[in-house]
Amino acid sequence: MFRFVIGAWLSLVEHLVRDQGVGGSNPLAPIFLAIFQKQSVSTEERFTKIENGIRDLIMVSRTVLTAIQKLEEAQRHTDGAINALIQAQVETERKVSSLADTVDKLVRLRGPNGQPG
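The structure corresponding to this sequence follows.
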């Protein structure tokens, strides 16, 4: 039986589950280190390790799914705010255009110096 020692992966799992932060901040840390050793492991121990690994993966996937849902909600909120700003810009441009037309009419009516034409 060969044993794999996975260092950074376990700390990434622990980091995601506990802190919901970013793992792998040390670029010099290996992602995984495989050490091949003969080791006698009972079937029960093997299944326990597999179950623990699956449980860790489920927790990480739930954390990732929750983060994705939060990002989607934030995106919907941002989209709504951007649409509101676009509508406000359209309305502002309409009002500025109306104001420019009014000023143009006044200048034509009174002349450039404000004197009646």
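The chain has two domains: 1-40, 42-117.
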